[in-house]
Amino acid sequence: MSAVAITRGQLSRATVGRLTLLGNLYFAQGLPFGFFVQALPALLRDAGYSLGEIGLASLLAIPWALKFLWAPFVDRRYWPRLGRRRTWILGMQLAATLVLGMIAIAPGSDALPVLMTAMFLLNLIAATQDVATDGLAVAILPPAERGFANGLQVGAYRIGMIMGGGVLLGVYADHGLHTTFAVMTVLTILSSVPVLVAREPDVPIEKSGSPHVHFLLRPGAWRLIALVVVYKAGEAFAQGMLRPFLKDRGLDLHDIAWMLGAVGFTAGTAGALAGGALVGRIGRRRSLVAFGIGQVITVAGYAYLAFGTPSYAEIATWLGVEHFASGMATAALFTSMMDWSRPESGGTDYTVQASAVVIASGVASALSGFSAQALGYGPHFVVATVLCAVAIAVVARLYPEEVSR
Question: Model pTM?
Answer without folding.
Answer: 0.75
